[in-house]
Amino acid sequence: SDDKLNSLDVAYTVSGTVERNGDVLHARLHVDDRLRHVSLWSYERSGHANDQAMLNSSVARSIAGVISCAYRALGPNGLTDTELRSRYLRVCDLFVNHDDATDFKSTFELFDDLRLIMAKAPSFAPAQSDFAKFGAYLAPLLPPDQASSIRIEAAKAAKRALELDPHSADAYVAQEMLLPPTAGEKREGPLRKAVSVD
Question: Please, which residues have CB within 8 angstroms of residue 103's CB and are 6 or more apart in sequence?
């Protein structure tokens, strides 16, 4: 398989195992960087052996969610540092696979990882737009004092994302989400802009 992957210039693979222990199936998966020989993300899920379709569906959704979020970090204009790539996949995992990161521990881990990526890779616009989007989405779930500071950070991140990439649809979506729900006309503008640049 290595020869085939090399001939196709495959840089990343999803691999794993499924084990059966009595009535339980346990899946372990990982995304690997073949060029640097490191694992970037791992994932585990268990399910009942009598409902293999449910486990397959759950695993597929989890992988697809993380990859659809993380692809920007893995491409030619993405992150070059392996640790930052791994952290970016973790951010995606926290948002996609941990109840939308609504528990505080996951939420703050997500924000801290994005802050680190923004500090170490300041020209990587997706980290800025993700902080803006996730911050706008998660702020209402936080205590008021923390929500206020996250909204301020999210607004700054959206502005910076658009400075780096005027076609950042997520940054416009974040700007819309940061407006009051009653500001219908003002909210329509950023959404139209997001559609036009996407």
Answer: none
